[in-house]
Amino acid sequence: MPIYEYRCGHCAEEMSCLIRASDPGPDRCEHCGRRTLERIVSAFNVRGTRPPSERALRYGSREFLERPERFGQAMQAIETRTGMKMPADRVDAAMHRLSQASKSS
Question: How many folded domains does the chain comprise?
């Protein structure tokens, strides 16, 4: 049976569920009880434990707003993984778009 991962669209909590392909997935968030779950792509690692920099790529947008240092960690992880550095003005613009999106929801 595969393990599926879900993220709540309301509270951004993530959860993992062991589900048979023929069974429906969860319909409510374990944390807040809302029906705003969406299945996310599960990360896997064939070499063992994921380094801390890789964990930063799994943070949700709400976490970036509540703890801005995580946005910086994610940008560093992207740079490490791709070898490309995003200019500071583009990072600032991305953070601004995130904050505007959270105000409208």
Answer: 2
Q: Check: pTM over 0.85? Answer yes or no.
A: no
Structural domain contains residue 34? yes
Structural domain of 82:
52-104
Query: Is there a domain that residue 26 lies in?
Result: yes
> Among candidates 72, 97, 75, which has minimal Cα distance to 84?
75
Spatial distance between the Cα atoms of 19 and 86, rounded to a whole number of angstroms: 39
Consecutive 10-residue averages of pLDDT for the chain (105 residues) = 80 84 85 90 53 69 76 79 76 76 63
